[in-house]
Amino acid sequence: MTQTTDFLAPARLGRLALPNHLVMAPLTRNRAEADGTPTPLMSTHYAHRASAGLIIAEGSTPNAVGQTYPNITAIHTDRHVAGWRRVTEAVRAGGGRMFLQLQHGGRVGHPATTGLTPVAPSAVPLPETIFTPHGHRPAAVPREMTTDDIRATVADFASAARRAVEAGFEGVEVHSANGMLLHQFLADNTNRRTDAYGGSVRRRVRLAAEVTEAVADAIGADRVGIRISPASTVNGVLEDGTDGLYAALLARLKELDLAYLHLVRSDPGTGWYRRIRADWPGVLIGNPDLTDLTTEAVTRAVQDLLAAGADLVALGRPFLANPDLVERLRRGAPLNPVRDRYFMYVGGADGYNDYPALDGQAAPSSSDSMVALDGARVA
Hints:
- By secondary structure, the protein is α/β, with parallel strands linked by helices.
- Helix content is 31%, strand content 14%.
- The chain has twelve helices and 14 strands.
- The protein has helices spanning 40-48, 78-93, 111-114, 147-166, 181-186, 201-204, 206-219, 242-253, 271-279, 295-307, 317-321, 325-331; strands spanning 11-13, 16-18, 22-24, 54-60, 98-102, 119-120, 130-132, 135-137, 143-144, 171-176, 224-228, 260-263, 284-286, 312-315.
- The strands form four sheets. Strands 3-4-5-10-11-12-13-14 form an eight-stranded parallel barrel, surrounded by four helices. The chain has a two-stranded antiparallel ribbon with strand order 1-2. It has a two-stranded parallel ribbon with strand order 6-9.
- The chain is globular.
């Protein structure tokens, strides 16, 4: 891409023409049905935000055992495909474009939610409790994946990618960040294996690479992105030798000519950001770590990332609270503040589809909600 700090200028992402450089980051909000099927609330939510250059829809599980929390979306049955198709059609009608994030939770799951024992690289449980349909429960000890489990999981990701395209998505994002399954294989405190998927850096990056390669084979590399979060400790992961770990992963991935690399909490001032930008030959989506959610602060963070070599910039909470975020930034208008964290995960339209646009219009609020989930999580 041609470098610019004008985030409102048109951009390209492979074969996609984007109206601007802003990406709506994947934001899990627990609004799906119990089986993972998207709901009409979600069609409304995403359609309201169709002015984003690109929407990356929330993490969807490629198989049943990969589910993390209650009411998380999935993409492994015909019913899931039909539900997501209603969402993509609504967004396309508003002029938008969508990718779908594929997310396997690994040890971030619980039998009370799925009826299944979670699987992970090693039998190392989460260090904290996890939310289930019955409230917070102690984390379950996951079952260490066999080689057959790993092969089946790779195949499930590829199948989920094909279903996503069938559902109308332009492409998919492989989630290898934030302590989910692929990140658990990268991190040495959660990966204690001694076989071909554990031990050395080359072996620990193998599953993330194989999943991405299989997904690219299934739908074409130009439809595939990957999300990483170097040095993140979310969900209790700890990496040893972060620089070498991601250098090895990117060395394998950059030969694929993927649609993009999505870098969580991108800070242009850090050495690892500069090294990743220098190492990655393709499109880089930066994701700033925002503490101030004012118009001025968001604008400055986006411009700083573009000036530091990011090609597109992904925003989470600003898009959550502002269905017309692009227009607000265009005008320099004030941003809606994010409401109580309780509303992020409770289900229903409250705190989801009732944020007003500049014209004062918003979807009707609803009192139909479920018990609050983990209020400590923020996008």
